[in-house]
Amino acid sequence: MKAIIIDDERLARNELKNLLQEFPEVEVIAEATNASEGIEKIESLSPDLVFLDIQMPGKTGFDMLLELERAPHVIFVTAYDEYALKAFEVNALDYLMKPVEPKRLADALMKVKQKDEEERLSYSNINRGLLGEHDQVFVKDGERCWFVKLSDVRLFESVGNYAKVFFAGHKPLILKSLNSLEERLDDKVFFRANRKHIVNLRMIEKIEPYFNGGLLLELHGGEKVEVSRRQAVKFKEMMSL
Fold first, then answer.
1. Can you give the pLDDT at residue 18?
2. Partner of 185 for a Cys bridge, out of 15, 121, 190, 201, CB 3.0 to 4.6 A?
3. Strand spans (E) along the chain
4. How far is CA 2 from CA 46, 88, 192, in A?
């Protein structure tokens, strides 16, 4: 398991590295002292896990996560307890208080292993196959159920550990992460516009330039979705002759 530690305090980074020596399955491949450096290391090294401080010079740990296209597993490590609720709202696997206790660190790493196992099982056997736009999927939200042709789905939107599925006049929630959906959807039809949205390229009605080099897509259902600056480059390459 490849890990990166992002913390502006050198002593805190060293203390965590020392604790992690008791867990040979975790390899610390890099460190960063602020959010901007952290984004660069994550995008270039693709770690499985990030130990992330919250209060850092410049951008906070929360700000950093908002700028990532795909976030690895995140364990917050901080001296402040007032951010715990917000940490879990952004899908952090755990929230450790400084100084980190070995038992709490072991519990947090167990959560990472359990999450990896859940994701591995979700991709196993039949679920490994890609779903094309002509495939039908079963969607259940509470007492309501639908068989939906993927070509009729306009948009998938991340809502915590769930995804909202937009089709016809419905927006049910399913217990799937956007990353797991992206693994199964045909990328010739479904495009990851940003960290919160996957759009059906066939459902785009209008494209406009947007803030900071991004794009704004308007879908047939009226939804407007921002394409991040990084993804806008990929989008233009895909859609040009």
1. 96
2. 190
3. 2-6, 27-32, 49-52, 73-78, 94-97, 136-141, 144-149, 153-159, 162-167, 173-174, 190-194, 197-200, 204-209, 215-219, 224-227
4. 8, 22, 24
How does pLDDT run across 86-117, given as a tens digit for each residue?
887 777 889 999 999 999 999 999 999 988 87
Cα–Cα distance measured from residue 30 to residue 41, given in angstroms and rounded to the nearest whole number: 7
Could you confirm whether domain 2-122 is CATH 3.50.50.60? no
**Distance between CA atoms of 74 and 193, rounded to whole angstroms?**
22
pLDDT of 126: 44
In angstroms, rounded to a whole number, what is the distance separating the alpha carbons of residues 48 and 27?
10
Residue 32, amino acid: A
Q: Which residue has the tokens 């196993």?
A: 124
One-letter amino acid at 114 equals: Q
Domain 133-239 grouped into CATH 2.40.50.1020: yes
Q: Give the Cβ contact number of residue 199 at 10 Å.
A: 25
Dihedral sign for Cα 116, 121, 124, 126, please: negative
Q: Which residues of the chain have pLDDT under 50?
A: 125-127
Please enumerate in sequence order all residues whose Cβ is within 8 A of that of 142, keeping only pairs 6 or more positions apart, or say none.
none
Question: Residue ranges of the domains in the chain?
Answer: 2-122, 133-239
Which three-class secondary structure string do you get for 48-94? CEEEECCCCCCCCHHHHHHHCCCCCEEEEEECCCCCHHHHHHCCCCE
